[in-house]
């Protein structure tokens, strides 16, 4: 039989008291004339299946912390929430010096013959703003290349677009990064978009992406919404 130290979790009631021993709360027998208050540090022992209080240690139970009446304790930190948002484009279209193409909704980069250098644009509307206040952790798009230009994979230049819907004139292009490099007929379901770009769409400072190279080369045609229904679907992973 050995003695242990426990802490009373409540005052003595009748002949027993509840106390915590190594993180486990148990009911213990107390001698008839021994008073025990909640918080008292106790010297206890176990005999078979029963616990007994031998006595109290120290002068008294520690007093509760002195919290002024006008101090409001902080709220507990809420749990982190994560998720993903799938955003279909509200429009896909290509612009050149003569204006927006109306013969199809595909997304072109570059120039063919003397018809003008394309800016192929994808607009996501207001749906990304539904995540306002969230932190974007990743983003990706689905892309498919159609027949046009050289068959082999071609390097493209992807740009961030300020507008969330198609403007009357040329779209406003800002940041740039390497775009998908696909052979004709190939597709990808998860081409990464810079996290900062998706965050800008969530925050409302950007609204889409585009493909543009000032040299007019290479000439590449990506499927738009009318050619391939998943075209440029954006998936945004987020936490808050």
Structural class: mainly beta
Count of structural domains: 2
Number of discrete helical segments: 1
Backbone CA Rg: 34 Å
**Average pLDDT figure:** 92
Q: Element order, helices and strands?
A: EEEEEEEEEEEEEEHEEE
Q: Which ranges are low-confidence, i.e. pLDDT below 50, for 5 or more consecutive residues?
A: none
Largest sheet: 12 strands, antiparallel
**Cα distance spanning the termini:** 53 Å
What is the overall silhouette? rod-shaped
Quaternary structure:
single chain
List keywords for this structure.
about 240 residues; 2 domains; OB fold (Dihydrolipoamide Acetyltransferase, E2P); 1 helix; rod-shaped; 5-stranded antiparallel beta sheet; 12-stranded antiparallel beta sheet; mainly beta; about 40% strand
């Amino acid at each position: 039989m050995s003695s242990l130290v426990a802490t009373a979790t409540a005052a003595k009631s009748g002949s027993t008291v509840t106390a915590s021993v190594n993180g486990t709360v148990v009911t213990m027998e107390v001698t008839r004339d021994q008073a025990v208050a909640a918080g008292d540090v106790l010297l206890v022992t176990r005999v078979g299946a029963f616990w007994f209080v031998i006595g109290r240690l120290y002068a008294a139970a520690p007093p509760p912390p002195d919290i002024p009446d006008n101090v409001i304790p902080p709220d507990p930190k809420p749990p982190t929430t994560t998720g993903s948002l799938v955003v279909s484009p509200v429009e896909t279209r290509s612009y050149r010096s003569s204006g927006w193409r109306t013969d199809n909704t595909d997304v072109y980069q570059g120039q063919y013959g003397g018809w003008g250098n394309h800016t192929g644009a994808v607009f996501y509307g207001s749906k990304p703003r539904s995540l306002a206040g969230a932190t974007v952790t990743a983003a990706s798009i689905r892309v498919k290349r159609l027949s046009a230009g050289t068959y082999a994979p071609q390097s493209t230049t992807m740009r961030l677009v300020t507008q969330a819907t198609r403007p009357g004139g040329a779209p406003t292009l800002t940041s740039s990064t390497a775009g998908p490099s696909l052979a004709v007929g190939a597709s990808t379901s998860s081409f990464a978009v810079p996290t900062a770009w998706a965050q800008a769409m969530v925050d409302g400072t950007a609204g889409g992406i585009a493909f543009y190279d000032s040299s007019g080369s290479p000439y590449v045609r990506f499927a738009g919404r009318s050619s391939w229904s998943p075209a440029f679907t954006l998936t945004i992973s987020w936490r808050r």
